[in-house]
Amino acid sequence: MAPQVGVIMGSDSDWPVMQAAAEALTEFEVAHEISVVSAHRTPQRMLDYAREAAGRGLKVIIAGAGGAAHLPGMVASATALPVIGVPVPLKYLDGMDSLLSIVQMPAGIPVATVSVAGARNAGLLAVRILASHDESLRVRVEKFQADLEAMVLDKDAKLRE
Ligand code: RP5
């Protein structure tokens, strides 16, 4: 099946964080592709990727980067697809640099930013975006949420056993 979600990152060093996005997509059987696309080391590749993404059938792009994390915003500027940004924490500043770089987009070019290292939620948000026009996927998201609720209630009950 053609990929519906593109998971991209500025460096292969981002993969330990970003793999949680891919895992969430796999859990929901959403076809996806994974690429390293650097805004500053491979700028032309980044522009080509963003401009061709919709035409290739992608519906959502998840972009992770650390430090001066301009990849999600730059990709969002060159595509009309929804872009979800994942701030990757590096050695210094606890990911605050990445978070602020990604979340502070000027009006006009939105990037839906998840928490620092929040790649799992990025994957789940991409699933929800797809589920907004896919009834069977929406039902699975609802079951996923119900399972989460049941798990918490079960743990709560076990506290009193
Ligand atoms: C960013 O620079 C990447 O997204 C990565 O988080 C960071 C460091 O990259 P490497 O020096 O590990 O390749 O562009």
Class by alpha and beta content: alpha/beta
Weakly predicted, low-confidence segments? none
Order of helices and strands: EHEHEHEHEHH
Query: Briefly, what CATH class?
Result: Alpha Beta
Spatial strand sequence of the major β-sheet: 2-1-3-4-5
Tally of individual domains: 1
> What composes the largest sheet?
5 strands, parallel
**Apparent shape:** globular
Strand content: 15-25%
End-to-end Cα distance:
47 Å
Bound molecules: 5-O-phosphono-beta-D-ribofuranose
Detailed description of the structure:
Pathway: Purine metabolism; IMP biosynthesis via de novo pathway; 5-amino-1-(5-phospho-D-ribosyl)imidazole-4-carboxylate from 5-amino-1-(5-phospho-D-ribosyl)imidazole (N5-CAIR route): step 2/2. Helices cover 48% and strands 16% of the residues. The chain has a five-stranded parallel β-sheet, with helices on both faces. The protein has helices spanning 15-27, 43-53, 71-77, 96-103, 119-131, 135-159, and strands at 5-9, 32-36, 60-66, 83-88, 112-113. The chain contains six helices and five strands. By secondary structure, the protein is an alpha/beta fold. The radius of gyration is 17 Å and the shape is globular. It has one domain (5-134): Rossmann fold, CATH 3.40.50. The structure holds 5-O-phosphono-beta-D-ribofuranose. 5-O-phosphono-beta-D-ribofuranose is lined by residues 9-11, 13-14, 38, 65-67, 88, 90. 5-O-phosphono-beta-D-ribofuranose binds next to β3.
Topology summary:
Layout: E1 5-9, H1 15-27, E2 32-36, H2 43-53, E3 60-66, H3 71-77, E4 83-88, H4 96-103, E5 112-113, H5 119-131, H6 135-159
The chain binds 5-O-phosphono-beta-D-ribofuranose.
5-O-phosphono-beta-D-ribofuranose is lined by residues 9-11, 13-14, 38, 65-67, 88, 90.
